[in-house]
Amino acid sequence: MKKILIILFILLIVGCKNKSELICTFDIKNMDNYSLDAKYTITNEGNFVKKIIKEEIYESENEEILKYLYNSKDLEYMNLKDLYGGYNYDLKINNDKVVLNAVINLNDVNLEKMVKDNYIDEDYILSNKLTTSGIKKIYESKGGTCNER
Fold first, then answer.
1. Is residue 86 a part of any domain in this protein?
2. How many CB atoms lie within 10 A of CB 88?
């Protein structure tokens, strides 16, 4: 019995160390007529991305820009969901903000099709899984700051 408890304890420790989170943030205030404050929480298992939770807040005093942002984000995420699967999102306009909350389950995303469509660089895919280093490079190249938690 004692050996079984020790083995379970070791498996628990190894399993916990295998999972981690990467937090990527964007705080862009210099855009014409709107700003973006975003936080992406990337859940990793080993060296691969398992899930991405996106929280994006676009702010503007211009109602037309808010409508444009809302419509473009809605179309973008609807297309991603239809084309590749794995995308679920909620989008709202609240006063002077467009708020996007999205969850991307990478187990349900057709990464092969994303590469074929040139939506994602094949260098970031290994064994048909998105690498943690790849997603970090993608978000940092777009102006994000990423840190492990």
1. yes
2. 12
Q: What is the DSSP letter of 106?
A: G
Does residue 134 sit in helix, strand or coil?
helix
Question: Which CATH number do you get for residue 35?
Answer: 3.30.1830.10
Asked whether residue 70 carries a pLDDT value surpassing 60, the answer given is yes
Q: Which of 111, 45, 121 is nearest to 84 (CA)?
A: 111
In a domain, 144, yes or no: yes
Domain count along the chain: 1
Return the minimum-mean-pLDDT range out of 2-6, 85-89, 105-109.
2-6
In this structure, what DSSP letter does residue 122 have?
G
- The answer to whether the CB of 25 falls within 8 A of the CB of 144 is yes
**pTM for this entry:** 0.84
111-121 core/surface letters (b: 16 or more CB in 10 A; e: else): beebbeeeebe
Domain-located, residue 37? yes
Phi-psi region of 81 (alpha: psi -120 to 50; beta: other; left: phi over 0): alpha
